[in-house]
Specification:
single chain, alpha+beta, 2 helices, 69 residues
């Protein structure tokens, strides 16, 4: 793929970036390298994969997760 730089820089198509939202740019000689940064677990992930079982309160270990990680 050939890209043309504008005054703001380059626009890389989202389909080339996958699901990642953070990247690291490095420059080696005449090359620019884009590396995906793996996402670590976050408080924002809570509830994204809810528990499906006979537990009355699936958030029993919520504080333990937040404060003892």
């Amino acid at each position: 793929m050939k890209l043309t730089a504008t005054e703001q820089g380059l626009l890389i198509p989202k389909d080339m970036l996958g699901e990642n939202q953070e990247f690291e740019l490095t420059q080696e000689n005449d090359k620019i390298i884009i590396t995906r940064i793996k996402r670590t677990s976050s408080i924002w992930d809570l509830g994204s994969n809810p528990v499906d079982c006979d537990v009355k309160d699936a958030a029993v270990n919520h504080d333990n997760y937040l404060y003892k990680q």
